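[PROTEIN RECORD]
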Amino acid sequence: MMGLRRIGRITICQGEIVDLCSDTVVLPDGKVEDWDFVHHKKGGGAAIVAVRKSDSRILLVRQFRPAIGETILELPAGGRDGTEDTMVTAYRELQEETGYAAEEGSMIKLCHILTAVAWCDEFTDIYLAPSVSKVSSQQLDEAEDINVEAFDLGDILQMIREGTIKDAKTVAGICAYAAGKGTRS
């Protein structure tokens, strides 16, 4: 019995951040089909579980996401610039989106997630910034409108259970943090 395998890929539409492709695949029964596939040109990015030094509360950002038509709470995050290391991305995005900074060398990688493996190759590396302090105002991109809020871990876990927080990288990052996972990287 043969497994599923890709035998071809064509690009249907090229975007600034993602390309829409059509993969030709052979199914285990030998049937050939075309499947949609989204290629993320930056590969992915980083998200940060940022714990405030002053009170141990976790920073989340509230922003409108046009793709789903909702304003949601999520971890500060962003895409890589070129092929930069995701830890560099994490330090930069934390300060840009929140105005908080982590001390150099203090971030701990919690996990590496694949965003939507059935149809997309995007990844997110999630880091813990265990002791952040306010250092500046936000440095938002022109299209960003982000409010920074701080919560206790228990409250965030409750919002996850209730479905108030439903962003995958946020759920994964908070669960990894709550589980005590983390290694220096």
Q: What stands out?
A: The first strand starts at residue 5 and ends at 14. The two ends are 41 Å apart (CA to CA). The first helix runs from residue 86 to 98.
